[in-house]
Structures are given as C-alpha cells and as structure tokens.
Design goal:
single chain; alpha/beta; Rossmann fold; 3 domains; four-stranded parallel beta sheet; 15 helices; 15 strands; binds zinc ion
Length: about 475
C-alpha cells in the first residue's frame, strides 16, 4: 500500500481511501496568462507519475486539475495587450496543453475552468456570510480566519505566529491581516458576475475549493500542487471548506522547488525560462527522467548539464529497446497492473523480485530514484546476460525494465514505431511551408491531420517536429 508524506501532519502515512479501490486527486492547475515555466512542468510530471503509479497499483483514479481563467494577472496582461481576457487565456491554455502533451502528461479526467463555476462560488461565499465567518468591506468579501479551527495547519504554524509575520496592507479594510478575499467587488473594465451582495469576481482561493469539492465530493483523497501553493493558497482553500462544514482533502501533497544555479525557479526572481524552451531544446522525455531521479519533495536543478545526464539515461533505455525489440508499453495508455503478470513471449515473463523491489520503493512515499535504480539494474542485467548468451534471462530483464519504466510514464523510442512515414513527412513539409508563409489556418489544419494520424506535433526552431503518441 502506498504511503505518502502529508504536508498537514509532516508525516508519511498510508493513503486513506474513501472507498476501496478508488482514489481521487485534485491538482491545482495553471493560471493561463503566460507560457508555463519549469516549475509548472515539474508539478505536472510529479502528479502524472503519482497518477500512473496508482493506476499501475490497480486503483481506479479520478484526476481533476483546473484552469484558472480569471485572476488579477490575467486582467492586467489582457489590458496590456489590448485583448479580452478570454482571448488571452485561450492562447495560453493552448500553449499549456501542447507542453503537457509533449511531456506525455495524461490529460485530466476533468479540467474545470474557474469562469464556469462562478455561480457555485457565489453560493459558497453566500453560505460563509450567512454563517457569520465572512464579512463585507468596501472592496469585497473576506473570510475571518479567527473563526476557522486549525488555521495554520498547512503552514505548520499557529495563528499567533502567522499573525505576527503577516504584512499589513494599508489599503485594505480587513479585520485581521491574515483574512483573505473571497469576492472582489467590480471595478470598471473588469469581467464581473452578479452576486446578492454586489457584482464582482471570485478570489483565487475560492475557485479551487469550489471546483474540487464539486467534482470530487467531500473527503476526496489527495490535494496537491507545488510547494509554493501550500500557504496561503491551500491553507485558504481548506479554511473555506472547514468554515462551511465540509470535509476536505485527506492528504496534502506538495512537490519541491525547481532551482537554476541554486536559486528558486520563479518568475518574480527574473530567472524565468519557459517549459516550451526546455522541450524544444531537449528530448521532451528528458524532463520526466530528471524529475524521477530526485525525490519529489527535494529541490531539483534544471540546467543543460542535468538535462544532458537525463538524456544519457534515455539513450541507455532506447538502446535496450532496440537490442531486444521491445514495444513501448505506453502505446496502449497507462501501464496496468496486468502488465507484470502477462507472459506474452511465452518464455519471458517479468522478473518478480525486481518488480517487488520497484513497488517497495514507490510505495515508500514515491521513492522514484530508488525505483529507477531498479530499472537501470535490469538494463545492466539484460545486456550482460545477452552478452553471455543467456537469452531467457536477458529477455526477462529487458521486458521487466520496459514495463516498470512505462509505469512511470517514460516512453521508449527504440523500436520502429516512431519512424516517420512518407505521408507524415509530406504533411510536415507542407506545414512548415504554410507556417513560413504565415498561413496559420492551413498550418493548423495540417497539425490536426498529423494528430489524427497519431502524431504528437511540436514547434521547434527548426520547424515542425513529430513523434508517435
Ligand atoms: Zn488551486
């Protein structure tokens, strides 16, 4: 059984299921006002690995991740560019999914958009006002955190110590500096929705608590995101759930920072490098392998050196796939638990001991580094057994490596299923010509044609790049 670190308790504990065999995850998605950065890539990969591993363990997984399509930064950026908020968010949502597809991150089962849930958010804010835990000011509606039992759980600090560290923002007429906004009153030129207490728009923390509870119900299993979301975003989501008498997430899971040269990866520090940039300049599978090499709670360094090391690891896996003519286990979607029982080749069932070692590592709070070490041991074993002429052992080790690495979502590019046929090559040529001539509709139509034929399409500096899904 999987044991996970819970940010609320600071302890590693068995995953507590609401219902046997089923698990629900809510992972905070992007605010789509800019291109995704490396931190977005990391959390998407970490939670994709968790999701795939839960599926591999035999659980039925429901994965929800939202799109925040109304927020201060969106309004500002749209105004700067002289376009509407929805025009802006449509562009960056497209960029987001292109990056996710390139990284082989499975699409969520549900992708709620905040603007589609405003009515439910109005209901929640109304309920909190009625309960007397929220109050109106000149600029909106706030939650009084003094009324929330256990506020500070995720910050792992008492209300008292949080309060002494809080900044006092002079312009706001809040009762306590930690109180946070549930509803922002309408300002000229901003998108607004009606509410009984006055038109306006929801606060970010209200968006996620409403969408997660609405789609997954009370007491869903895991709420996750990057470490930067733990406080105040997740604390404040939880506060609203508690204040409205709802049972919220059972586990809180947060992944560590991405650093570049020892500094925190964050746009506010000015060291922004886009995720698309990384995907274009490296094997798109490399970031996944790089993420897997560290524990998800540790910081990772994403530099040309660490990416190149990950590519060297991929080369060894691809070489194995070519030598043993292995099929990519991801071709059929996520790897299922049955993959370790089957005996397709008649003589080369998987290595049970290695599989058990892999599972033990993964069950121990997703020790992916340990799990990968098992995979690379199998690669070594397969090669040396084949060199020594022991084909049965070699094939068993190779096949086990493929299944296990597939369970982590790493694609194998060794066999010929990635070869570009003449039809696809022709579509690529025509698409590059259309793009050069700025015939965007034609380029989009050719992209759609390639995608329909099962290709992942990426734009790089050299032009259209494709590979098998
Ligand atoms: Zn959120």
């Amino acid at each position: 059984m999987l044991r996970l670190h819970d940010s609320a308790t600071g302890e590693v504990a068995p995953l507590a299921l609401r219902e046997p065999g089923k698990v629900s995850l809510y992972v905070c998605g992007p605010t789509v006002y800019d291109a995704p950065h490396l931190g977005h890539g990391r959390f998407s990969l970490v939670f994709d690995v968790l999701r795939r591993y839960l599926i591999f363990s035999g659980l039925e997984v429901t994965y929800v991740s939202n799109i925040t399509d109304i927020e201060d930064k969106i309004i500002e950026r749209a105004a700067e560019r002289g376009i509407t908020e929805s025009e802006l968010t449509a562009v960056y949502e497209g960029v987001w999914w292109d990056a996710m597809d390139a990284l082989d991150v499975l699409r969520p089962d549900e992708t709620p958009h905040a603007t589609a849930y405003v009515e439910r958010m109005v209901e929640l804010v109304g309920d909190l006002l009625e309960r007397g835990v929220a109050y109106e000011t000149d600029d909106g509606v706030y939650l009084s955190v003094n009324e929330v039992p256990g506020y500070g759980l995720l910050a792992r600090q008492s209300l008292e110590s949080l309060r002494s560290g809080a900044r006092i923002e002079a312009a706001e007429d809040k009762r306590s500096p930690l109180d946070f906004v549930l509803w922002k009153n309408a300002k000229p030129g901003e998108p607004t929705w009606d509410a009984p207490w006055g038109a306006g728009r929801p606060g970010w923390h209200t968006e996620c608590v409403v969408m997660s509870l609405d789609l997954l119900g009370d007491g869903f299993e895991v709420h996750g995101g990057g470490l930067d979301l733990m406080f105040p975003h997740h604390e404040n989501e939880r506060a609203q759930a508690v204040a409205s008498g709802r049972e919220f997430a059972r586990h809180w899971m947060h992944n560590g920072w991405v650093t570049v040269g020892g500094e925190k990866m964050s746009k506010s520090l000015g060291n922004f490098t886009s995720l698309s940039d990384l995907i274009d300049r490296s094997d798109p599978r490399a970031y996944r392998l790089l993420v897997l090499r560290s524990h998800y709670r540790s910081p990772i360094e994403v530099t040309p050196e660490t990416v190149a090391q990950a590519e060297a690891g991929l080369a060894r896996l691809d070489e194995l796939a070519r030598r043993f003519d292995l099929e990519d286990p991801l071709d059929q979607g996520p790897v299922l638990p049955g993959a370790v029982d089957s005996d397709a080749a008649g003589s080369a069932a998987v290595d049970g001991l290695a599989t058990e070692a892999f599972v033990n590592h993964m069950d121990d709070d997703l020790d992916t580094a340990g799990a990968l070490a098992v995979v690379f041991d199998l690669v070594r074993q397969a090669n040396s057994a084949a060199d020594a002429g022991d084909d049965a052992v070699a094939m068993q080790s190779a096949r086990t490596a493929a299944v296990l690495v597939g369970a982590l979502g790493v694609r194998l590019a060794g066999s010929d299923n990635g070869e570009i046929d003449d039809t696809a090559a022709d579509l690529v040529r025509r698409r590059d010509a259309a793009r050069a001539a700025k015939e965007w509709a034609e380029a989009d139509a050719l992209r759609a044609e390639l995608e329909a034929a099962g290709w992942l399409v990426e734009d790089s500096a050299e032009g259209t790049r494709i590979r098998r899904r």
